[in-house]
Write a structure and sequence with these properties.
mainly alpha, 3-stranded antiparallel sheet, 3 strands, 2% strand, globular
């Protein structure tokens, strides 16, 4: 038997790791405000936790229903077996209450205020608070409008009580969330399978990469032009506002967010005095103008940096797709990359393995995944349009879940546990796909080219908070919609007196307002089918193209022109990178050769130094007598050639040489003027006489160089 709560803890850990990966991919915790990182991480964690924990709640509800149906006798009660991921009902209720109200608090209070705070261009806390209230007036106005209409309806029906006020709050929030959910699902259930289908078509990916390169190149140039215009205004303001102006600290704040060279230029001449008493100031030098300029600097700098990073990323993708397209026609079966930096990690093991994976296997896998997702999307559309049908039951998820649940209570213990496991795996997979289709547009769609997520840590704080707000407002209606698809909500199934999920009990029933409980939540998802047809035929993209907006359509003239431009930009960038790589390779080879020669010379020098050291050591080890013998031999060899018939100095023969024994130790003959020491000479009579050594002749002997 599994330990109670073990699988629940495992799900929480997995969800937390997924949230950490996403915040690392899109955010930048080193530069973003700590409140932004913490709030977005918490929101994503709670939203994903709902998706993973709800299947456990469903299996526990089926188990409780089994116990209610077989509560007449102990024997029948033993037919109901505890699911392997069973968690107590009290734990589930506490979890759903904490999760739901935390998401409501985050989505309607913390995230909107924090977004306004981090995006505010005000220089004071008071100004930021005022702008915070002004920006969020639209969101709170829409919520209060729905809440006010429902509140007036309740007052007219005289149904006001503590429970209905709670239900009224959840109804207003879920109404807003379900409206957003239907719009997102209408796009996601069609475009998500289609995106995987296009991933298996290399030519399509290459054309789209060219299109993105050209589009981002234009966006990058436009962003840099706007940034230059903003910097001109910053320079003008910095020159006009000097140290004695009370708004100088605002200019310093603006300069701190500019490049270093511009900040240094703006700081010059600040100490100069200027009279501001005449009241003649430019509109930019006022406090209101500085606030607007500060906001323009923040948005322009962020937009320029983001477009530059994305442009480089799509250039890399375009060159990678070019390599893939060229390797399709490679009959050798070996992956050849035009640049060493563009090689895949599998190239380290085998180029042939990389070729098979990237050219043959991976495109087929993308097509298979797309086919599977397309079938799931068709099931979702069919179930959304028919889940209100109670007899017969037409919703596919409802048929699968209830058939498995009824089979679980009619089998033995091991089989029933396997059936509960099948129910949880199926519900996790199905609700995860619905959530992916709903979250997919949020991660892909750009709202007025301002709120969108960019990978490689290039998403600004406003887009992160905006995404977190949408997810937190969609997750609860998504769960209600899924419970309706599988007929686990009594409002849809029409069966009263049965056990409800802990999530439904926490949310409360919508029995107060019949229009919302029986009409809006049941028939409104049918609009999902119409939105899916619009997405399938790309009607929105064609309408945007007709209105002059850029949309990727292969049969559009503007798209064709952008693809050509992107292809040219990619070729230029490839040539530039190849030249840089060749230059760096040459420099590396040259430096390698120089280092090799230096190592060889160091080896020779070290050998010579070793020999010199050996000679010195040998010289030191010589005795005094040895040095005297060496000096004597040098002296004798120097004057041994002084023989000849015209020489004035006659030397005796070797047999008549006297016994010379040098006694001095300071003998240091010079090659020019050697000083000879005194010697003790034995005469023929046996007496010892001290005589000076013979000096060198002043004139060289005759015929000395005849042998040369």
């Amino acid at each position: 038997m599994a330990v109670p709560g073990l699988f629940f803890a495992f799900e929480i850990i997995v969800v937390f790791l997924i949230s950490l990966y996403l915040i690392h991919k899109y955010g930048n915790w080193r530069k973003d405000h700590w409140g932004t990182t913490l709030s977005v991480l918490t929101t994503w964690f709670l939203c994903f936790a709902v998706i993973f924990v709800l299947p456990s709640d469903i299996s526990a509800t089926l188990y409780n229903r089994c116990k209610e149906n077989n509560s007449s006798s102990i024997a029948n009660h033993s037919l109901c077996h505890t699911p392997w991921s069973y968690v107590t009902e009290a734990t589930q209720r506490n979890f759903w209450a904490l999760t739901y109200w935390s998401l409501q608090l985050l989505s309607w209070f913390i995230l909107p205020f924090l977004q306004s705070y981090v995006l505010s261009a005000q220089f004071t806390l008071r100004g930021k608070l005022f702008e915070m209230l002004k920006v969020n007036a639209i969101w709170y106005g829409s919520f209060l409008l729905i809440f006010g209409i429902l509140f007036i309806y309740i007052l007219a029906k005289d149904l006001l009580s503590g429970i209905t006020l709670k239900t009224l709050t959840t109804t207003a929030a879920n109404t807003w969330g379900l409206l957003i959910l239907v719009l997102l699902l209408g796009y996601g259930v069609v475009d998500m399978p289609r995106s995987f289908w296009y991933k298996g078509r290399l030519n399509y990916q290459l054309q789209k990469a060219y299109y993105s390169v050209a589009k981002l190149r234009n966006d990058m140039e436009e962003a840099k032009e706007k940034l230059d215009e903003v910097f001109k205004d910053v320079k003008f303001v910095s020159e006009k506002i000097r140290y004695n102006n009370p708004n100088r600290h605002c200019v310093d704040t603006i300069l701190a967010k500019c490049p270093d060279d511009l900040a240094r230029q703006g700081s010059r001449g600040v100490d100069d005095f200027e009279d501001y008493s005449d009241g003649k100031q430019s509109e930019l030098t006022t406090l209101r103008g500085l606030v607007g300029l500060h906001g323009r600097v923040i948005s322009s700098s962020r937009n320029a940096k983001r477009t530059e990073v994305q442009y480089k990323e799509f250039l890399r993708r375009a060159m990678e797709y070019e390599d893939l397209e060229e390797n399709k026609h490679n009959e050798t079966g070996i992956f050849l990359s035009s640049s060493p930096s563009g090689r895949h990690s599998l190239h380290a093991y085998s180029p042939r393995l990389e070729w098979w994976w990237r050219i043959r296997i991976r495109p087929i896998l993308w097509i298979l995944v797309s086919t599977l997702f397309s079938m799931a999307s068709l099931i979702i559309l069919w179930s959304e349009a028919t889940f209100f049908s109670r007899d017969p039951v037409l919703s596919v998820p409802a048929l699968i879940v209830h058939r498995a649940g009824s089979f679980a209570k009619d089998t033995d213990a091991s089989d029933s546990k396997d059936d509960y496991a099948f129910i949880e795996v199926f519900t996790i997979a199905f609700i995860a796909y619905i959530a992916a289709c709903a979250y997919y547009p949020i991660y892909k769609i750009r709202l007025f080219n301002y709120y969108y997520l960019a990978s490689n840590h290039q998403t600004d704080q406003g887009s992160l908070l905006f995404n977190a707000m949408f997810l937190s407002r969609v997750v609860a209606p998504l769960c209600l919609n899924f419970l309706g698809l599988i007929h686990m909500d009594s409002h849809v199934s029409g069966v009263d007196g049965v056990a409800q999920t802990a999530f439904t009990e926490t949310m409360g029933h919508l029995d107060v307002i019949p229009f919302i409980s029986k009409g809006f939540y049941i028939y409104f998802p049918i609009i999902l089918c119409l939105l899916s047809l619009v997405t399938l035929f790309r009607l929105g993209s064609h309408i945007m193209a007709c209105c002059g907006f850029q949309a990727f359509l292969l049969d559009d003239e503007m798209t064709t022109e952008l693809v050509k431009q992107g292809k040219n930009y990619t070729r230029l960038e490839r040539r530039s990178r190849n030249r840089k790589e060749m230059r760096s390779t040459d420099i590396h080879d040259r430096s390698s050769r120089e280092m090799s020669s230096l190592r060889n010379s160091d080896t020779v020098t070290s050998s010579a130094d070793a020999l010199s050291a050996a000679d010195v050591e040998a010289g030191r080890s010589e005795t005094r007598s040895g040095r005297r013998e060496r000096d004597t031999k040098r002296f004798n060899s120097r004057y041994s050639r002084l023989g000849g018939k015209d020489d004035k100095l006659a030397l005796t023969s070797a047999e008549e040489l006297p016994d010379v024994t040098p006694t001095t130790t300071n003998f240091d003959p010079s090659p020019k003027h050697p000083i000879l020491p005194k010697h003790h000479v034995k005469t023929s009579s046996g007496a010892t006489v001290s005589r000076p050594s013979p000096a060198l002749p002043r004139a060289p002997p005759k015929n000395l160089f005849d042998d040369i």
